[in-house]
């Protein structure tokens, strides 16, 4: 079966009909672009994915990286594939023409890289993390640091990592113990251990730029005493060539359930006296800088989760269309031919669920990219600030919703295919394993939920919260007098429930223990996420409805009807779940809080 | 960390406080037994599990079986471990003393084998499938067949399989094409291909007894033309010794995501002219016989899923108790020591959810074993018939509820452990992979849902349905005047909703297309399953409440409080979900049914 990895029709729908990416060409930065140049870039992304990554997808998974005590060994086919991405200009197509980029909007960049994410799964992480690393240094580093580290990363000669987690601290960054000592020449010596560092060692690039969180001796305890350092694998000479090996050693590789395209490493800094590190910005402000990268990484995680869900959906759909088995209940004639399983209502349910989850999740991620574009290039300062506010607020949802529902979609891809989905003859079991990392890294779902309810909602006098609600309200108004008025009503009711719940839970913080009040924060995140996805689906429904008004040809008509049916599915089978979650949150259900460790 | 695989306190609670297994010793068959003999057998199970299986658990997973074109190679440590089970008499401890068994009740057998399931995960499948195979032949085979095949299986010299699935038919048994031709000597020659045959080849036993579904030439189409055959790997001589190799060839092994302790095979029957097969019972009644084994296998699947969930819960709990990280929100002092993560309310939520799922699921499976005991040894014919009715009705729920919620529990075990849960240093990622098979094999969740709603509910004038409801009602009456009256009220309301939903959906079959009416059958199964588990939890709550009345020592008091808290968790965070499912079912929501293949 030659399944396509993604639906191009759907990608075009989201880009041009849902988010009107073409209108970005009116902005000065994108004036040289047109739908044709956007599509050409997307086509290039697809070509590289199909030629270099799809053929090795299974091998990457079955040939886990190994460490011989000296060097890491990856499947040899990975390097030429990664090089092909870089050579085609797909590693950072959003960067300026003058820096060798394509100067594409971020929403288009997302679509250009979609085929790569879908086909290369986690291997693409080398490239996306490098970008996020370069963006951080560009934003917070000195001009010399940009020249020395960002430039070779943009050119694909260096790669980058984010080194936060430590064996003793995990998500509790306040307790990290890696230390930095200032030397006379202004550099620092870094000593400590980091774990779960993705891409922390390999030979895909000439050098690896680690961004390391560490504590300068004498710094305050907690997160206010954390600084950020550039710590390269190899020191770099004046002329840009590699100097001696820095005091950064690979302590080991982790054997992960999935995501085997991307090494996960334990790194030792300073076993021989101290790794040379260069301070980014000022001391003790490291965590703030790191959030620049982390926010970007969180959106990347959501995008990867959504695309893994989408490609699993596509694969199981193609399978269901070609696999004959069984008959409808209404047909009692054993002499009749078996039907393809896509005809069975329960298989359709599993496909519709995947469609609703995956297309809802990916549309949300593209919306995030659109906001990131507006943040940078919208016409007025007010529009740019508004986009920033929306994106900042939505980040925990963009990170966690696809991460939670992507694996569920992949589980249904397995289920559609039955025993065939459980074996590695087909890639859906790999998608299921790969996607399971996403609710964990870059801040677990629990951490995202506290970020949303405890921080993002009340922040700046509820500015982000109100802004997101206003956006949703606007779509409701638009849908109220359309064919979709029933759905507009459902979303309106959901919005009211969300507001009541928010008031109730935050109101309770005045009088109750915060650990009790926030103990249902994941239910709050679930609720908010479902409302946002329902809103995204209503927007997709409106765009599909508009498409139908244009008397499309048969194939397009089918496509639009499918969108409307998936929207209906989400509204009937998913959105009502929020009332259950809201009850727990509103009533400050204390079951988890009251449970004592000794009772387990 | 030396985590125990299962909680012995909980096992004792379920056996003796919840299901009063000790009372079985009053029945003549178990008169030689006592709680002491039961506990000794359980202790033996644990000893073998700890000594032989826990140490090789990870190796079994990372050393997948291989096939060199001639022979299957398993990890060598598997055979001595399996032999240890057989030598300790743990393979079929329920069989008669005179056949070398321990003549234990099935509910005790389940507990005896629990440690083995939890530690040996899927390796234990060789033994349990052999048992189910032997039980089928014992029930439906001739005395000669019992002597020739069952005896060596009981002794552990032979093992057994169930060979149903074919490449072209999958779950659609009506279309299976394996053929059988009758020979003059009364035996048959079998020709065809089977896939996904668990334990279909290995060298753990002297011989392998395949139970093969095939179609005798000229038989009717569909399921009414299927017969059942014993097809051994080696023919057996008059004296019981192995004769020549039968015409059964291993065509290949499947590479499964999990469950690697148990080979999954493609088998070719009759490549050299026809495999010798022996008819079980009469021609064309094969599927009915196979259901004897399949029903047993379905309960086994549920049990395995529940125990994999339980052991994952236990593992993540032990981890959470020992892993310091972060502080409570109420504590703003970075100088204070980090707390163990079990103190964080969201971690408690994830542990409570696992506890509610896993202990609920396993208690249901033990209840199934209790019914199987009653079916055989209850005092009166009426009691035995009643137990049969209940068990037959509940089988799709016992199969599917643990299979659906077990993997969700295992996902939470990963989440509790964060990045450490995603790597193979700890077994929870393996549990997650292993458990994912359970919603697929022995009838997918979709098939179970149609069996429940389309067959089991209306069967015999709703006899099973009414019987199960009456059992639940009885518990409600018992709880109504207790401390647990609020929960009794919730369950009463749920029962009424279930009845209304059942009437509405079955009423609709009179006028609507059955494929539409049954298109929400999985939601019906979800609903019924949740009501049954809530009932099982109310029973656990009553038993815990009774325990508290006895003024227990501190450790027991904690245990009972934990049970009550998990019950409360299930009633507040899970049971209310049924109202969402019931709405879809009652209203015959047509979203999935209406979705057309070309719209995807």
Automatic annotation (TrEMBL), chains A, B:
Q: Does the keyword Oxidoreductase apply?
A: yes
Q: Which SUPFAM superfamilies match?
A: Acyl-CoA dehydrogenase C-terminal domain-like, Acyl-CoA dehydrogenase NM domain-like
Q: Where is the Acetyl-CoA dehydrogenase-like C-terminal domain?
A: 469-595
Q: Which GO terms describe its molecular function?
A: flavin adenine dinucleotide binding; oxidoreductase activity, acting on the CH-CH group of donors
Which keywords label this protein?
A: FAD, Flavoprotein, Oxidoreductase
Q: Where is the Acyl-CoA oxidase/dehydrogenase middle domain?
A: 162-269
Q: Name the coenzymes or cofactors required.
A: FAD
Q: Which InterPro entries match?
A: Acyl-CoA_dh-like_C_dom, Acyl-CoA_Oxase/DH_mid-dom, Acyl-CoA_Oxase/DH_mid-dom_sf, AcylCo_DH-like_C, AcylCo_DH/oxidase_C, AcylCoA_DH/ox_N, AcylCoA_DH/ox_N_sf, AcylCoA_DH/oxidase_NM_dom_sf
List residues of the Acyl-CoA dehydrogenase/oxidase C-terminal domain.
284-450
Cite the Acyl-CoA dehydrogenase/oxidase N-terminal domain residue spans from the record: 47-156
The similarity annotation says:
Belongs to the acyl-CoA dehydrogenase family.
UniProt name for this protein:
Butyryl-CoA dehydrogenase
Source organism per UniProt: Microbulbifer donghaiensis
Its ancestry begins with: Bacteria, Pseudomonadati, Pseudomonadota, Gammaproteobacteria, Cellvibrionales
